[in-house]
Every structure is written in C-alpha cells, then in structure tokens.
Amino acid sequence: IRRQVLIHIRDLSLLVVAATLASFGASLFLSSLLTRPLVRLAEGAKAVGRGDLSQKVPVEAADELGDLANSFNTMTDDLVRSRDDLMRRNTELRNLNSMADHLSQHLAPEEIPESSLGKLLQMTGLRAGWICIMGDNGRLRPAGGNGGPPKAPPKAPPKGSGAGGCLCYQALQSSQGVVTPGVPECPPLKGRSVGKSKTVSASVPLSAQEETLGVLTVSADSPGVLDGDFVQFLRSVGQQIGVGLRNARLDREVRQKEEARGRLLDKLIVAQEEERKRIAREIHDEPAQTLTAIAMRLDQMKRHLPDDQIEVRQGLEEAHQEAKKAMEVLYQIIVELRPQALDDLGFLPAIRWHAGLRLGEKGINLEFHASGSPARLDSQIETAVFRLMQEAINNIYRHSGAKHAKIRLYFRKAAIKGIIEDDGVGFDVAAMRTPRMDSPGLGLMGMEERASILGGSLTLTSRPGKGTRVVFEVPLNAGGAQHAEQD
Known about the structure:
By secondary structure, the protein is of the alpha+beta class. The protein has eleven helices and ten strands. It has helices at about 1-50, 65-105, 110-125, 165-170, 230-305, 310-335, 340-345, 345-360, 380-400, 430, 440-455, and strands at about 130-135, 140-145, 180, 200-210, 210-220, 365-370, 405-410, 415-420, 455-460, 470-475. The strands form two sheets. A five-stranded antiparallel β-sheet has the order 2-1-5-4-3. Strands 6-7-8-10-9 form a five-stranded mixed β-sheet, with helices on one face. Strand 9 (about 455-460) and strand 10 form a beta hairpin. The longest helix has about 80 residues, at about 230-305. It is elongated. The model is unreliable at about 160-165, about 185-195 and about 480-485 (pLDDT under 50).
C-alpha cells in the first residue's frame, strides 16, 4: 500500500510539474503575442527619433494594436511628405536668393535675359528655356535662350481671337502661367528638335508690379517636373527677372539723365566763365578806362586852378578821390569775375594771391601749403577748382570770424586734393543743407556741384564754435596736367 501511495504521489508530482511547464509555456506564448507589436512600435519610434523615416510597423491584427501600427505608419508617411516639402521649399528659397544676388550685379538691361536664364537652368537642371521681351510696339521679341531659343519673334494671336497664338502670348494673358505638354506650338521652332516626345513646357510672364515686360519659357523632358509647385516657383523667378529688368532700365535712364545733366551743367559753367570774361573785359575797356580818364582830367584841372580857388580845388580833389574809389571797386569786380592771374600765371599762383588778398583784408592769418608743382592744369579743371576754392575763401571772409585759416593743396598723379579750414565760429551743417535764397548754404551747394561735375567729391565738417573744414578731391584727366612731382 505504501509503495502504491508513493507511486501515486510521484505521478501526481509529475502531473503538477507538467501542468506548471505547460502553463509557463502558454504564458510565454501569450506574452510574445501581446508584446511583439509593442516592441516593434518602440523600435520604429527609436528609428524615427534617429531621423530614419523609412521604418514601417507590420499590422498583424485588426485590433487596437493594429490601429496603433496603422497610425504610426501614417505619421511616418506624413513626416516624409513634410520633410520633402520643406526641403523643396528650402531649395526654392535658396535658388530665389541666388537669383536675387545674380540680378543685383548691376547688369545692363540687354544682359539680364540671357544671364538670368542661364542661372535658372543651372539651378534647376532643366534642359532648355528662352526669354522674349516686350518691344515698344507691343510685340514680343527673342532676347535670350539656351537649348532651344526662338530665332524669330513669337507669333501674336490675331486681333479678337482670344488667347491663341504662341505659348508666350498665352502666358501674357495668364498671371498663373501656362503649362503645355509636348513641344510648344511656336512658329520659330518649326523644323527644329527642341525636345523628346514627353517634353513639357511652361511659360510665365516677366512682371514688375503692374507692368508685364516679357515671358519666360522653360522645357523639361519629364512631365512630372513642371508640376504646380514648380510653376509657382517659376512665377516668382519671373517676377524677380521682371523687377531686375525694370530696375536695370531705370538705372540706365537715371545714369543717362545724370550724364546729360552733367554735360548741360558743364556747358552752363563754361558759358558762365566765358560771360564772366566778356563782362570783365567790357568793364575794363569801358567804365574802368572812362573813370581813369576822369580821374586824370580832374587831377589836371586841379593843377591848373589859381591858388585862390580853394573851395573849387577842394571839390576837385574830393571828386578825384571818389573816382579813384570807384576805379578800385571796378577792378575788384573784374578780379572777382575773372582774375587775370589765373590766365597769366596759372591756378596755384592765382589762388595763393586771391587767398592772401581776400583774407588779408580781414586780418586773418593765412597758412598756405602746396605739395607738388603742376605746370598748368586743364583749363576746365583749373577754372572749376579755382571757383570752388574761391567760394570757400569767401565764406571764411564773410561768415567765419576766424583769426587763422589754413589751405593745403596736394597735386597727385591722378587727382588734386584740397583742404581749407579755419578756427571761426562754425555752423550747423544739417541746417545749412536747406538754405534760403540769402543763405550761404547756396554757396556750399555750388561747391559740391562743381566737384561732382568733375567726377570728384567734397565733404564739409563744422560745428558751432569749432571752426569749419572743407575737403575736396578732383580727378585730373589723362592729358589735363603735367606734374613735376609724382606720387
């Protein structure tokens, strides 16, 4: 009986162990079924955290874990699309910035179409493109191309026919641009191979604000390249090129007007100097000579009067002195109009003489220094610089109240530089920039204008109680001056 009991106990123990092992195996199997999707989700999340968006979690059942796996896969797909869209937009912005930098290089209007088109094709890798510009007659004309530019003007649509005509003219009527599958219907391209059978072309207007200046057309070998996003980017490029083209035209117009203005002012100044010479000669030949004769006649009459004619003699003497004063005033006017020393001796002796004479009248101590020794300057430069310095000296004479003045001239190989400064009362330069008709600011404007006409520069610095400093530099033309001292 005891042996039977032990056998039963052993069998029972074996059954218990077997049941326990079976239960443990079942638990492991169920645990694996439950945790494997979660493990895969965790691994997928770690991969996304590392930037790997290619991971997909298998969907093993249509339950809550399966829904979670589907949501995770949808999230990674959205992240991939967002990343690709962000990268595409960053590329477009980089290309737009690059195009803006390219167009800011002060290109001539006729250089912009070809140059900007080459830049666009280089950035995008497109196979071909061309630009047509609107002419004064309202018709498009070829202005630049690469890989398939039209050799003749695009065909305009007949009047009253709506859009029609070439792709370029269709783009003019569409602010959104036009995309055409295949080779565009363009008469200048007939008989020419511009692309494969799958070629797609897109045209957008070149616009600047409300003005349309032309049309940009590009072609690609793959239909998927010129999608809506790319056409939107192409419209932005078209606006950039249009604005760049308009700015280049405006810049050329401004420069042409400025050059014409400079030539006109140059002629006016030359005419002014000639008129000054003429008036100075007439004053010297007529009134000055007449006053000299009157003074001599009065002196003769005084000497021939009897000694007892005291009152008459005194009157003649007073008249003689008045005539001499009038002669001095006339000669001062002649000097102001056209110093004879400028014609006879040249610029440097003339300005030294004028500064010493003018400032000496006010008791202003003058320090004059010149570096370099020009034989003679070009007549136009000589006159313009003399007038410029004359105005600065006159300002010191009239307004500065200075005790000391300093003039320094530097004759260099290609330019003449001058510095005129004083220790006078000074003034507010900003307030002087808006002068009245009786203001010395008009003289400052004249000085700046003379320097600008000669292609030079002038700067003025001054503060109340701190004196004034004028610095100018004027270039010398190739044959305008000979120098005894070089840089």
